[in-house]
C-alpha cells in the first residue's frame, strides 16, 4: 500500500452492496470459485485438477438442511418409531423428544418397561382420549376461579381440568414468553404430564401454532449432536456433520452453509482453519485478557522507520511505501520490504532469544510478552487487513461498474475481481489463525515446514492484495495476472491447510500447552 | 386484568382465614400485598421473629408467578437461610417459571416459604450471596436462579 494511493479511491464512492455469495454449489471444495458455467471464460482452468481431486485432509463431509427438510425428517422418524411402538404420532413425538431422539435407546427401553418409559416422558398410562373441550356441571376453575355455567373446560389424560381460557393463556405464556415447546407440562401443580401436539392443535391460535412448530424444530436440532444451526444472523439452515466432540483435537470441521457462511461445526465460530477449537478458545480468552497490552498494535498509523513521517494504512496490503522518502517496508515487522520473501528473511517467525538472555524472571516475562505480541500483532493485522481489503474491493467494484462501458468489459468479465477478493478474504482468515496456531506450537522438525508454508501464503496474499491498489483504469489489463495470483493464493492455502490437517490427524504437532485441558 | 376474579377470591380468603403463623399485613389492591410469617416451632434461627414478604402481581398472574421478596426495611430482617439472599431475594423453584403452577396461590407460597425456614438448621447465606446481592439490581423475575439442591 503506498500512502498516496488513497486519493485514487476517494473520489466520492460510497461502498454499498456486499459480496455475492455464490450459493450455486453445495461443495466444500475451496477451488469452486474457479468452476464457472461460462466455459469460454477460461477461469483458472489450471486449477481443474485440484477441484476435481478427492477430499482434502482438512475437509469434512456435511449436509445442509432447510426447516422443511428438518420437519420432514422428524416426521419420518416419528412415523417409523410410532409404528414399532404402536403409539400415535403425537405420543411418539413426545417419547422421542424425551429420549433426545435416540431411537434405539427409546425402543429398547420401551420394549422392556413400556409403563416406565411412558411415565417418565410425561405420558402416563396409554389409552386414547380424544382431545376436545367440554362443559362440566358445577365446575370451578382452580386457576381463574370462574364458575359460570357453560364454561368450556379442558383436561389431558391426567385429569387436571381447567377452563379452556386459562389453558390457552398458560400455553401462550409458555410458547410465546418462555420459548418452550417440547417440554411444556400440565398446569397442575406437580403434574409432569407433557402437553402433546394434539392438545396444542385444539387450543391455541394459528400464529402461536407456527411458533410452536418452529420451536419444536429448534429443539430437534438442539437435541441432535450431529446437527447445528448456522450461526449467521437470520440464517434458517442447519448443518449436519458427523464429527464428534472427542475428535476436535484432531480435526477442524469447517462447513459451508447454503447461505455462504463458513463456520466451524465444532464450536460454531467463524472458519478458524487450521487451528483446533480448543486452541481457538484459549487464544480468544488470552487476547481478551491481554487486550490493553496489545491495543497499541491495532493502531492505524505508524511512523516510517526511515524518515519518521506518519504513515496511515488504508488498504489491506502490508507492503508500505512512504510517500516522503519512498522507503518500502513491511507494516507488520517494520523491516525492509525487499528482504521479504528471500530465504533468510522471516517476518512470520518468532526468533527465540538464547537462554542466557532470559535468566531472571523479569527478562523471562518480558520475553513471553514479546513472543505473544509477535503472534498477536500478525493475527490482529490480518484481521484488520481483511477489512481494509474488503473496503478497497467495494470501492474498486463500484468504479469498475462505472468503467464497464468505457473498457468494453461485460459484467461477467469483471467477476475476476470478486473472485480475487473472496480468495483474499479467505486466505487472510486462514493466515490470521495460523498465528494463533503458531503461538501454541512447540518447536519440532515440522514447525519449519509450517512456517515456510505460512510465509509463502503470506507473500502470495500480499502480492494479490497489492493488485487492488492499482489505478482502476489499469485493472482490466491486469486481469490475467490477477487471476493467476488468485489461484496461486488458493493453492498456497490448500497446501498449508492440508499439511497442518494431516499432522493434526496424526498427532504429530507438539503444543506448548496441554490441548486436552482447554 | 386477566384473573381479577381469582385475586378477588384470594383476597377474601386471606382476610377470612389463614394457617397459623401466616397473616396479612397489607392487601388493599390487586398489585401488591404484604404478608407476615412466623416460624412456629422453636428453631433458634428464627425464634420470636416476624418476617414480612412483599408479593407483586403482574397482569398475567396466576399464569405467571408473583414476585416475592423479603422486606429489609421498616424494621424487618431477612431470615438467614442458604437459599435466601441478604437483599431479600428467594431462590425457590416454585417461584420460577419452571416450577410455578397457576394453581398455586399466595397462601400456598407463604406456606412453602414457612416450611423452608422451619426445616432449616444452617446459619448461612447462599455461597454467592455477597457477589449476587451487591451486583444484583434486577427484579427477581429477571434473575435466572440456578436452583440450589432442594434438600435444605
Ligand atoms: Zn395434569
Ligand atoms: Zn380458568
Ligand atoms: Zn447459514
Ligand atoms: Zn471450532
UniProtKB/TrEMBL annotation, chain A:
It is an enzyme of class 2 (transferase). Its EC number is 2.3.2.31. The keyword ATP-binding does not apply. Keywords: Metal-binding, Repeat, Transferase, Ubl conjugation pathway, Zinc, Zinc-finger. Residues 1-36 are annotated as: Disordered. Residues 137-351, 141-189 form the RING-type domain. The keyword Acetylation does not apply. This is RBR-type E3 ubiquitin transferase.
UniProtKB/TrEMBL annotation, chain B:
It comes from Xylona heveae (strain CBS 132557 / TC161). This is Putative ubiquitin-conjugating enzyme E2 W. Residues 117-142 are annotated as: Disordered. SUPFAM superfamilies: UBC-like. Residues 2-152 form the UBC core domain. It comes from the Eukaryota. Pfam families: UQ_con (PF00179). Keywords: Ubl conjugation pathway.
Amino acid at each position: 500500500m503506498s500512502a498516496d494511493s488513497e486519493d485514487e479511491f476517494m473520489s466520492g464512492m460510497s461502498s454499498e452492496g456486499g459480496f455475492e455469495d455464490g450459493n450455486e454449489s453445495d461443495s466444500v471444495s475451496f477451488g469452486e470459485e474457479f468452476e464457472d458455467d461460462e466455459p469460454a471464460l477460461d477461469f483458472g482452468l489450471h486449477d481443474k485438477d485440484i477441484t476435481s481431486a478427492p477430499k482434502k485432509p482438512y475437509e469434512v463431509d456435511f449436509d445442509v438442511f432447510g426447516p422443511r427438510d428438518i420437519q420432514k425428517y422428524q416426521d419420518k422418524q416419528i412415523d417409523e418409531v410410532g409404528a414399532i411402538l404402536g403409539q400415535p404420532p403425537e405420543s411418539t413425538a413426545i417419547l422421542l423428544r424425551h429420549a433426545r431422539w435416540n431411537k434405539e435407546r427409546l425402543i429398547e427401553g420401551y420394549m422392556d418397561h413400556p409403563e416406565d418409559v411412558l411415565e417418565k416422558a410425561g405420558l402416563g398410562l396409554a389409552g386414547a382420549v380424544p382431545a376436545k373441550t367440554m362443559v362440566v356441571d358445577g365446575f370451578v376453575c382452580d386457576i381463574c376461579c370462574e364458575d359460570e355455567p357453560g364454561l368450556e373446560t379442558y383436561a389431558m389424560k391426567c385429569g387436571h381440568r381447567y377452563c379452556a381460557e386459562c389453558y390457552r393463556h398458560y400455553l401462550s405464556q409458555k410458547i410465546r414468553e418462555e420459548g418452550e415447546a417440547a417440554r411444556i407440562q400440565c398446569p397442575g401443580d406437580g403434574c409432569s404430564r407433557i402437553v402433546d401436539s394434539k392438545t396444542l392443535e385444539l387450543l391455541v391460535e394459528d400464529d402461536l401454532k407456527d411458533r410452536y412448530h418452529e420451536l419444536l424444530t429448534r429443539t430437534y436440532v438442539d437435541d441432535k449432536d450431529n446437527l447445528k444451526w448456522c450461526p449467521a444472523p437470520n440464517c434458517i439452515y442447519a448443518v449436519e456433520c458427523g464429527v464428534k466432540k472427542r475428535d476436535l483435537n484432531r480435526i477442524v470441521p469447517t462447513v459451508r452453509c447454503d447461505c455462504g457462511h463458513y463456520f466451524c461445526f465444532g464450536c460454531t465460530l467463524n472458519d478458524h482453519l487450521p487451528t483446533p477449537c480448543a486452541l481457538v478458545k484459549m487464544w480468544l480468552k488470552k487476547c481478551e485478557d491481554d487486550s490493553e497490552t496489545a491495543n497499541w498494535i491495532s493502531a492505524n498509523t505508524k511512523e516510517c522507520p526511515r524518515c519518521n513521517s506518519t504513515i496511515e494504512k488504508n488498504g489491506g496490503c502490508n507492503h508500505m511505501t512512504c510517500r516522503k522518502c519512498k522507503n518500502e517496508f513491511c507494516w507488520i515487522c517494520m523491516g525492509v520490504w525487499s528482504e521479504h520473501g528471500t530465504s533468510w528473511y522471516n517476518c512470520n517467525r518468532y526468533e527465540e532469544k538464547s537462554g542466557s538472555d532470559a535468566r531472571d524472571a523479569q527478562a523471562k516475562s518480558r520475553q513471553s510478552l514479546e513472543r505473544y505480541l509477535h503472534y498477536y500483532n500478525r493475527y490482529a493485522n490480518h484481521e484488520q487487513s481483511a477489512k481494509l481489503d474488503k473496503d478497497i474491493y467495494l470501492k474498486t467494484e463500484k468504479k469498475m461498474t462505472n468503467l464497464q462501458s468505457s473498457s468494453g468489459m461485460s459484467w461477467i468479465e469483471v467477476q475476476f475481481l470478486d473472485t480475487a477478493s473472496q480468495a483474499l478474504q479467505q486466505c487472510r482468515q486462514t493466515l490470521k489463525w495460523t498465528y494463533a496456531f503458531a503461538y501454541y506450537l512447540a518447536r519440532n522438525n515440522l514447525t519449519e515446514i509450517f512456517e515456510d508454508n505460512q510465509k509463502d501464503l503470506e507473500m502470495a496474499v500480499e502480492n494479490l492484495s497489492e493488485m487492488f491498489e492499482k489505478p482502476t483504469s489499469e485493472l482490466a489489463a491486469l486481469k490475467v495476472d490477477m487471476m493467476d495470483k488468485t489461484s496461486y493464493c488458493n493453492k498456497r492455502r490448500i497446501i498449508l491447510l492440508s499439511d497442518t490437517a494431516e499432522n493434526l490427524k496424526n498427532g504429530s504437532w507438539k503444543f506448548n500447552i496441554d490441548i486436552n485441558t482447554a | 386484568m386477566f384473573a381479577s376474579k381469582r385475586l378477588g377470591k384470594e383476597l377474601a380468603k386471606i382476610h377470612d382465614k389463614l394457617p397459623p403463623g401466616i397473616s396479612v399485613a397489607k392487601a388493599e389492591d390487586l398489585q401488591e400485598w404484604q404478608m407476615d410469617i412466623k416460624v412456629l416451632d422453636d428453631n433458634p434461627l428464627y425464634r420470636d421473629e416476624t418476617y414480612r414478604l412483599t408479593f407483586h402481581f403482574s397482569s398475567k398472574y396466576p399464569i405467571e408467578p408473583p414476585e416475592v421478596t423479603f422486606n429489609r426495611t421498616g424494621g424487618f430482617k431477612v431470615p438467614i437461610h442458604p437459599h435466601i439472599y441478604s437483599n431479600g431475594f428467594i431462590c425457590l423453584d416454585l417461584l420460577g417459571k419452571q416450577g410455578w403452577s397457576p394453581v398455586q396461590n399466595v397462601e400456598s407460597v407463604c406456606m412453602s416459604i414457612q416450611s423452608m425456614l422451619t426445616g432449616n438448621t444452617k446459619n448461612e447465606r447462599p455461597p454467592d450471596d455477597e457477589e449476587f446481592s451487591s451486583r444484583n439490581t434486577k427484579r427477581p423475575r429477571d434473575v435466572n436462579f440456578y436452583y440450589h439442591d432442594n434438600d435444605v
